[in-house]
Amino acid sequence: MSRYEVDGVDIQTLPKVSLHDHLDGGLRPQTILELGDEIGLELPASDAASLGAWFAAQSNSGSLPEYLKTFDITTAVMQTEHGLHRVAKEFVLDLAEDGVIYGEIRWAPEQHLQRGLTLDAAVEAVQAGVEEAIGLVASHGGRIRIGQLVSAMRHLDRADEIAQLALRHRDRGAVGFDIAGPEDGFPASRLQSAFDTLAKAHFPATVHAGEGAGIDSIADALYSARALRLGHGTRIAEDIVVEEETDEAIVVRLGQLAEWVKDRQITLEVSPSSNLQTGTIAQWGTALTDHPVDLLHQLGFCVTVNPDNRLQSGTTLTRELGLLVEAFEWDLDDLEQVTQNAAAGAFCSFDEYEELADEIADGFDDLR
């Protein structure tokens, strides 16, 4: 049993959907030690507990660029077919253990070519690990559905190539495209031709926006990338003015961009703990209770809750939901709403969505 409960229900037992979860941010510390030993990688700690603590400490810098430096270690042990296969398999098994029934794994294949893998071989290795894990979950009476989000690094110049990679694997595990890396100064419009290619092929994209940069970045992601979801999207709150707040009600005025995102129900992939670590919510405060996620949720935005990087944040989706229950007194209805939001935003077929939505509703009803 987890320590996180809502209305007397263990949150870990609830069906969950994870949309924003980085493969190179979800390694088990013991796996890093073992894979690192195989390649002679020098690590900052020699046991799993200490290594996990090191990642958490390094990630609490309040700076997105500093936070991203921790990935130098995780990607170093993910440069072979064996390493990628193992990491992907364990990643999915850990999701299933946490109650996730549908998950999308985002990762950037271009960061995993240092030991001779091709882009396609890297994607195939991850897919093989995913499929092995799905089979293991099924053999124990469970079920989990997983898709790959193939990411391009926004500050590099391979987006067109990575977009074509995603399209080659659209029927072999890839369900969507993403751009990641430093957001500020690297708008989606830099990669316009890649997004044009994807749009012409009717392939969905989510874009990291509203994390390391503000509403101009969000607007650009929606316009240039035709983003169906916003990775984090937290800083859309910069376009909301609170005009009056009492114990009974809150009166706000939405700017045109915020109104568009709300009215079109564009999915916000909010990652609360990560947002604290990277300073995303610094303008509102430094505690989780300062995070605009509750305001966005109460106003009817399509909020979803995600772990982002389970290793760096020392977290799980259960924990992220539990923290919001503690901070904002969310109840089962709130958790079901954000979970259904995630199902609606998932890059799957409409038939798969309907099945997923029913499974979520039944799962919550059974625990009420």
From TrEMBL:
SUPFAM superfamilies: Metallo-dependent hydrolases
Any Gene Ontology biological process: inosine biosynthetic process
Entry keyword Signal: no
Keyword Coiled coil (UniProt): no
Major enzyme class: hydrolase
Domain Adenosine deaminase: 15-362
GO molecular function: adenosine deaminase activity; metal ion binding
Entry cofactors: Zn(2+)
Keyword terms: Hydrolase, Metal-binding, Zinc
Enzyme Commission number(s) from the entry: 3.5.4.4
GO cellular component entries: cytosol
InterPro entries: A_deaminase_dom, Ado/ade_deaminase, Metal_Hydrolase
Family statement: Belongs to the metallo-dependent hydrolases superfamily. Adenosine and AMP deaminases family.
Name the UniProt record assigns to this protein: adenosine deaminase
Native organism: Agrococcus baldri
Lineage: Bacteria, Bacillati, Actinomycetota, Actinomycetes, Micrococcales
Gene: add
